[in-house]
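hey can u check if this looks right to u? its 304 residues, i copy pasted from the old doc so theres a chance i mangled smth
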Amino acid sequence: MVIAFIEGLLFAPRSFAQKFLVWALSPLGKLAAFWQWKKLNAKKPVDLEIRVVSVGNLTIGGSGKTPLIVALAKRFDKAAIVLRGYGRKSRDLIVLDDQSAVCDVGDEALLYRSLLERAIIIVSTDRKAGVLKAKELGAKVVFLDDGFRHREIKKFDVLIRPFPEPLNHRVLPAGCYRLPLKAYDLADFIAKEGEDFARKCEVSNPTDRMVLVTAISRAKRLDPFLPSGIVAKYAFRDHAVFDVETLKAIAKKHNADSLLVTRKDLVKLENFSAIALSVLELEMIVSDRLLMAIDDYYKKASNF
């Protein structure tokens, strides 16, 4: 309930309490917007002599960055993914290998690792250091996960613009935006959902009685893609680590044949055997317009 209330407040305030809090926080939101815009434009980009494509968004929470990066990166033989590794305990720069654990690199990094076997996956709080490490390891193109605000790196910026757009356009803490809307003007390409990319979902190992269990931001985004056979839904906070006993209790309570999870959830449940898992497989269908923009950038930077 708390998560749903906060998400409603930030994205689409409807109740009196949500609208009142938005009004009360608006001065802070305006101050934050001014400060973030000033910081963004104070940075001067440095050419690291390697192709860098950033895929980001202006709002908090999920917008499709991960599956979009997967769809773009798998087209290149020597690609690297550099991301922060949200939720991990370590702050070191880590190049993922077969021994990498979720506590050290985060769930998103492991998801990239599972979907892009040929790519170099690097978690680094310092994005510049991550890009240089990728270059050292022989990458020809680096995809930055959520790298738009890292203006100190010369790159090709793709910004995802969701559809429908959030009703609340204010900047945190009064709304869901991390930067003011005018930041879209700084992007090299604005990827519009429904025009430049679309989501295709299928369920592997479906059963008659499935309980949705997920730890992604704004879990309601999954509703249009859910199959029949869902008997209950449980949404935990984004990036949460699952407790085995809690999952077993949920399955027992609803007499479930399986738990339905996303790929991002699955990487944290590799050793879970108490009940079968059904997986919501998400694939991103990318427009020719976006693919051509990436290819044009790649060719123009061919001197690297």
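The longest strand covers residues 276-286.
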